[in-house]
């Protein structure tokens, strides 16, 4: 079996991104010489060479299917970061990528040997992708039950870390601005963040369904959902609010500031994804960090393994997250 960057990273004890940048002589990478030599020695031990990546020494084409349009992608830097990371990682591995936006299956070239699909997809869309190729890796969508490789963030522990942080701050009235997602053919996609939020609070006897409001993951929907929460709950507004993604968090923060509610003393906020936008709002937003670069490199490695061994059983990779505290928590 051919060696992947994941194999080298595991053996050397570093991230996949670090391995990739060292092997590609990235001069901007800040890493000590001992680590660099360990990675190079591991690659040499495994007899790793990039030209062995491509079957028959030919460049393979992989479609990168983004479930957002270009305009939508600009409003959600999370999915943009994943796509751009995949394209960079694929290029480093000697793969040629073909971008396809908003699930336009008819635009996928029929000569691609694999598909990396980013976002949410209905059963019928999965079948449409399958008609092009069976070598598919889904990113941010759990497709294991359908028989396809997939890569997802660790939603369960991410949500639990948020609730633990609020409780540690002395906050036991916790609300959520949840998101309702639909595929481009309008099939509803369950949100695991809300599922784990509700189930964890129930376990701790802290669940209040009236503290949950929903939007559609846009900044405007976050603004409107928070305005509705403020108007509906008044003085009963929860002291801690978990927000399903960064654009909604930015909109919610605007509504809170317009209502002259103090953050974080009266309301503490934690977002999810930790894209650049939440670092530069004021006050800067605490957020669950999802390692989009790591996801991108891992997705490409999974695709390479699939291309090399198409008959292998599908696998699911869960990428860890961590909570970053900034000015919207106490």
Structural class: alpha/beta
Counting H and I runs of at least 4 residues, what is the number of helices?
12
State which percent range the strand residues make up.
15-25%
The appropriate CATH architecture of the domain at 155-290 is 3-Layer(aba) Sandwich
- Counting copies of identical and different chains, the oligomeric state is single chain
Q: Describe the biggest sheet? A: 6 strands, parallel
Reported by name, the CATH topology of the domain at 155-290 is Rossmann fold
- Major sheet: arrangement of strands: 2-1-3-4-5-13
Query: Overall pLDDT, averaged?
Result: 91
Radius of gyration, CA atoms, in whole angstroms: 21 Å
CATH superfamily of the domain at 155-290: Response regulator
Helix content: 40-55%
CATH class assignment of the domain at 155-290? Alpha Beta
Number of E-state strands: 14
Give the topology string: H per helix, E per strand. HHHEHHEEHEEHEEEHEHEHEHEHEE
Q: Termini separation (Å)?
A: 50 Å
Low-confidence stretches: 51-57
The best one-word shape is globular
């Amino acid at each position: 079996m051919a060696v992947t960057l994941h194999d080298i990273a595991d053996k050397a004890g570093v991230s996949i991104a670090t391995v990739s940048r060292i092997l590609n002589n990235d001069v901007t990478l800040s890493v000590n010489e001992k680590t660099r030599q360990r990675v190079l020695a591991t690659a040499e031990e495994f007899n790793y060479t990039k030209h062995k990546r491509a079957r028959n020494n030919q460049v393979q084409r992989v479609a990168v299917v983004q479930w957002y349009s270009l305009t939508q992608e600009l409003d959600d830097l999370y999915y943009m970061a994943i796509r751009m990371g995949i394209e960079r990682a694929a290029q480093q591995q000697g793969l040629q990528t073909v971008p396809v936006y908003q699930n336009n299956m008819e635009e996928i070239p029929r000569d691609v040997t694999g598909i990396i699909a980013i976002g949410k997809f209905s059963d019928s869309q999965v079948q449409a992708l399958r008609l092009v190729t069976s070598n598919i890796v889904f990113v941010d969508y759990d497709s294991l039950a359908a028989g396809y490789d997939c890569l997802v963030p660790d939603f369960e522990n991410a949500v639990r870390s948020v609730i633990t942080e609020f409780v540690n701050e002395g906050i036991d009235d916790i609300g959520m601005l949840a998101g309702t997602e639909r595929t481009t053919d309008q099939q509803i996609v369950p949100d695991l963040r809300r599922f784990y939020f509700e189930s964890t609070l129930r376990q701790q006897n802290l669940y209040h369904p009236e503290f949950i409001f929903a939007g559609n993951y846009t900044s405007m929907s976050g603004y409107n959902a928070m305005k509705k929460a403020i108007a509906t709950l008044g003085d009963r507004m929860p002291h801690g609010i978990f927000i399903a993604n960064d654009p909604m968090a930015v909109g919610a923060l605007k509504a809170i500031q317009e209502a002259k509610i103090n953050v974080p003393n009266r309301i503490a906020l934690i977002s999810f994804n930790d894209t650049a936008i939440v670092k530069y709002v004021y006050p800067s937003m605490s957020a669950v960090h999802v390692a989009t670069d790591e996801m991108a490199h891992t997705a490409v490695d999974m695709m390479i393994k699939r291309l090399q061994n198409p008959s292998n059983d599908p696998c699911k990779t869960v990428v860890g997250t961590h909570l970053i505290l900034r000015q919207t928590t106490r």
